[in-house]
Amino acid sequence: DGGITQSPKYLFRKEGQNVTLSCEQNLNHDAMYWYRQDPGQGLRLIYYSQIVNDFQKGDIAEGYSVSREKKESFPLTVTSAQKNPTAFYLCASNLGPSSADTQYFGPGTRLTVL
Amino acid sequence: AQSVTQLGSHVSVSEGALVLLRCNYSSSVPPYLFWYVQYPNQGLQLLLKYTSAATLVKGINGFEAEFKKSETSFHLTKPSAHMSDAAEYFCAVSSGGSYIPTFGRGTSLIVHP
Prior knowledge:
The structure holds two protein chains of two kinds. Chain A is mostly beta strands. Helices cover 0% and strands 49% of the residues of chain A. Chain A is built from no helices and eleven strands. Chain A has strands spanning 4-7, 10-13, 19-25, 31-37, 43-51, 54-57, 64-66, 76-78, 87-94, 104-105, 109-113. In chain A, the strands form two sheets. In chain A, strands 2, 4, 5, 6, 9, 10 and 11 form a seven-stranded mixed beta sheet that branches. In chain A, strands 1-3-8-7 form a four-stranded antiparallel beta sheet, with no helix packed on it. Chain B is 0% helix and 62% strand. Chain B has strands at residues 2-7, 10-14, 19-27, 31-38, 44-50, 56-58, 64-68, 73-78, 87-95, 98-103, 107-112. At the A-B interface, strand 5 and strand 9 of A face strand 4, strand 5, strand 9 and strand 10 of B.
């Protein structure tokens, strides 16, 4: 089955630690996205990538970093500079830069700071 | 610039009653509009989308939405709520050169027996 996988499902981080969230897709999509979801705030865009080896900051990129070395993979690192990282993180993908494109979402990773 | 407003963070209905979730958008060019549903601790999945082919759009699970340009609205409806409809619903807009959608804050649908 084609789709997006995210791992781990739950992640716990200690203060000062960097953690990396995995996102893999086998839909052959060019574009991939990372969103942060907090209760009552909808989805906020962290980073997005249209093609391999290229990515752009979204609305809340501070304290996060990404890479796009392979078409199917778009990992997100939450660095110690992100002061309030506890949230639900969603990865998404679509075919490419078109306003009519549906986004396909992974199941999410819930990150908690201890 | 594009934006979307979902009226009501929570909507509560009885099982079998009409479901109406409101979404108003702002866009300087003709928009594409989407409704997504999110079940607890899961990702979002597409319910339906408007791409200018027809103003009344039918989606999965008996939901539909009507694009009204004069009211800049794209409200989601379902004639009869089912317990399994309880979830978070997000309206999103993308338009023109901005192929990245803007999401609303979401509306939580609560269905009472």
